[in-house]
Amino acid sequence: MIRFPRSVIGSVDGSNGDYSAREFRLFTILWLKSRLWLQ
User: Which domain of life is it from (predicted)?
Assistant: First the structure.
């Protein structure tokens, strides 16, 4: 299971109604790339 920063989880939970699926997907791609680069 992928762990995200609390701020992102809070946005997904609905504390930030302006948070869009596109932004979430972009963050996920960047997060996965950073994981691959750090290995």
Answer: Bacteria
3-15 b/e with 16+ CB inside 10 Å = b?
A: eeeeebeebeeee
Angle at 25 between CA 5 and CA 30, to 5 degrees: 65
CB 27 within 8 A of CB 8: yes
pLDDT at position 25 = 82
Token pair in block for residue 27: 């963050």
Amino acid letter for position 3: R
pTM exceeds 0.70, yes or no: no
In whole angstroms, what is the distance from residue 35 CA to residue 33 CA?
Answer: 5
